[in-house]
Amino acid sequence: MLGGIGVGVCLTFVMLLVVGTYSAAAGLGGPGGGRGGGLGLAPNAVPAKYQQLVARWGNLCPAISPPLLAAQLYSESGWNPTAVSPADARGIAQFIPGTWAGHGIDGDGDGDRDIWDPNDAIPSAASYDCELSKDVAGVPGDAASNMLAAYNAGAYAVIKYQGVPPYKETQGYVKTITTLALSFARPVGRVAPSQQAAGAIYFAQKQLGTPYLWGGNGTADQDGRFDCSGLTVAAYKTVGIDLPRVANDQYNAGPHPSRSELLPGDLVFFSNDLANSREIHHVGLYVGGGYMINAPYTGAVIRFDKIDSPDYFGATRVTKDGAEASPVRDSAAKGA
Question: How many CB atoms lie within 10 A of CB 259?
C-alpha cells in the first residue's frame, strides 16, 4: 500500500514537472534557437584524443567546420582508427587505398602518410573536403552541402546540376552529415524544447517497477523487460522516433543542452570516461527536478534515480532527424 502510494505521488510530481517545465520553456526556441549552430565543438562530444585535431583541421577552409568534420568521422567509423569496411575503406576517416594515394597527407609532419594514423587521416579528410569545395566553388548554394554532395556523387554531378544533385543517396548523405553536425556543435543560445518528449515520458512511467533485463527490448518473450537503452528506444518509438539501439550512439541523436538547461524528455548519459562519448555505459530519460527514469542494472527494476553522480556525462535533446541520421552499427553490446 505504501509503495503504491509512493509511486502515485512520484507520478503526480513528474507530471507537474513536465507541465511546468514546458510552460516555462515555451519561449526558448526564439530566432536561431535550437539549431545547434556555431563553429565550436560541444564539450566531450569528440573523444579527447581527437578534439584538438578536429578543432584545428575543421577550420581548414570555409566549407567545413569542426562539427561537420566530426560528423563525417563519426559517421564513417564511429571514431575507430582500425575500422575496415567491406569495400576496403580503412581507418578513422575510411579512405579507400586508391583515394588515399592521391589525397592522403602527412598531417603530423613525421615523414610518412599513414592511413591508419588519425594524426594523418583526420587532416587528410579535412584536406580532401577542402579540395572538393574548390572544385565546386562556382556552384550556387550552401558551400558545405555542395562539398558533401561532391564527396558522395563527384564534383561533376554537383556542377552539372548546379547544386546537390537529385540523387536519393546523395541527398540523404548531405542531410545525414549536416544533421549529425548539430550533435557535435556547441549550441548557440538555448536548445529548442522537444515536441515528442511528453509521450516518451508517459511510456517510461508505465514501465516503473518492471525488472531489468540485459539486452531487453520489452518484447513478449522477454516479459516486457528492458535494459537502459532498450527502454529509451521503446519510449521514443511510441512517438515516431527510432533511436539507435546502443546508448553511445543515442548520444548523437540531437543537440546537447547543458545541465542547467535540461528539460523532461532529454536523454541523460553516464560514461566511464568523461572526455569520451564512446565510453558511455548508461542512459536514462530525464523527468525534471534532477531525476530520471531508467533501467539501472540486473537485479533492479525500472525506477526513478538522481542524475547527479560522478559519471554523469551529458544530455541529448532528441530530434527525429538526429535519430535518423545516426549510423546503424553493431548492436550486440546491449545494456549500454
Answer: 12
Question: Measured between alpha carbons, how far is 234 from 245 in angstroms, rounded to an integer?
Answer: 10
Q: Residue 2: what pLDDT?
A: 32
What b/e sequence results for 111-126 when a residue is b if at least 16 CB atoms lie within 10 Å of its CB, and e otherwise?
Answer: eebbbebbbbbbbbbb
- Grid cell 530520471 is found at 292
The residue count for the chain? 336
Contacts of residue 145, Cβ cutoff 8 Å, sequence gap at least 6: 163, 164, 174, 178
| pTM (global) more than 0.90 | no
Query: Which candidate, 35, 321, 15, places its Cα nearest to that of 198?
Result: 15
* CA 93 – CA 124 distance, rounded (Å): 8
Angle between helices 197-206 and 2-25 (to 10 degrees): 180
Q: What DSSP designation does 256 have?
A: -
Residues 116-125 have pLDDT tens digits of 999 999 999 9
**Is residue 194 packed enough to be buried (19+ CB in 10 Å), middle (13-18) or exposed (0-12)?**
buried
% of the chain residues with pLDDT over 90 = 78
